[in-house]
Amino acid sequence: MNQILDGLYAITPDASPSAEALTKQVAQAIEGGARVIQYRDKHSDHTGREARASALLALCRASGVALIVNDDLELARKLGADGVHLGRDDPDPRQARALLGRQAIIGVSCYDDFSRAEAAAEAGASYVAFGSFFPSTTKPNAVAADPGLLTLAREHLPIPPVAIGGITPQNGGLLISAGARMLAVVSGVFAQPDIASAARAYTTLFPKETH
Ligand SMILES: Cc1ncc(COP(=O)(O)OP(=O)(O)O)c(N)n1
Ligand SMILES: Cc1ncsc1CCOP(=O)(O)O
Ligand SMILES: [Mg+2]
After folding, report:
1. Among 61, 77, 106, 152, which residue's CB has the most CB atoms within a 10 Å radius?
2. What are the domain boundaries of the chain?
3. 35 lines ligand 1 (CB under 6 A)
4. Which fold has domain 7-206?
5. Is 78 assigned a catalytic role?
6. At which positions is 2-[(2R,5Z)-2-carboxy-4-methylthiazol-5(2H)-ylidene]ethyl phosphate bound (predicted)?
């Protein structure tokens, strides 16, 4: 699992297109080297989310890439996705581990709070996410985080830290230098005219073996 949790982590955009259009966009992100995809959808109803997530899961399986479902633990379980990402308003990571099993990837949002990351590691999380490191158009009210958290996590936690929030190919390098094992990106990938090239600009920031 540790090998997968390295590199570009592409998160699907807010304006959720049809399952077919979304799958095409995600295929381009994978072509550009994304290692993990998160299906994040705050707008579709249950049926729409299930249709999109299962189309993405088929693509990810065929491409050898992991699919993480944001927020919706039950959907992740039902589809047999590779894991789930949980924030402070979402189910508890212990509950997720119990439901999804030992192999599942369970990510936990820690914002700017290192003690939350320690608790998440203790609860069986697979990775911890910190951010927002830069102003984000996707989540303008996200709490601001300091890159030093990534260094602290690399030094003191047994699981990899993920960086999120306003990350561009220009500012991503400093987060990797600070300790980020993955860069989680929405608009820097999916709001770009050439999604594959946009993804590639992030993947080349990482050491060669991760892309
Ligand atoms: C990799 C990653 N990190 C952080 C988040 C944010 O999760 P959360 O705080 O639950 O907010 P929403 O994404 O649900 O709006 C994430 N999704 N992915
Ligand atoms: C979900 C989330 N949590 C903190 S910032 C953010 C959005 C990241 O999107 P972008 O890469 O467009 O800033
Ligand atoms: Mg959430």
Report:
1. 106
2. 7-206
3. no
4. TIM Barrel (3.20.20)
5. no
6. 136-138, 166, 186-187
